[in-house]
Amino acid sequence: MNRLNEPFAHDADLPWEPAGEGVTRKVLTYGPGVMMVRVRFEAGAVGPLHSHPHIQCSLVESGAFEIEIAGEPRRLTAGDSFLVPPDAIHGARALEAGVLLDVFTPMREDFVPAR
């Protein structure tokens, strides 16, 4: 189901999708210029180092993570946040089970079904 530009999203109506070993994601709201995604990690799960052309800002909603951005690791816990510049190599490791709330600009076309 494509929800492009829909103003409201009810969490209970949105599916969790596989996003790697021990990682699932839920695409929340989005439009061409922005996208919000909740990413759930089991303890020990890894979001491998990668890059993308989007600006990403993220909030640690729960849990504890080691976040690496451009070679600099940092331990972050609930309430902490981070910013990933375009094309910066970054990744995450869940030190304990938790959830990240990611916002991308522009939207991640690769996270939604073809329009």
UniProtKB/TrEMBL annotation:
It comes from the Bacteria. This is Cupin domain-containing protein. It comes from Antarcticirhabdus aurantiaca.
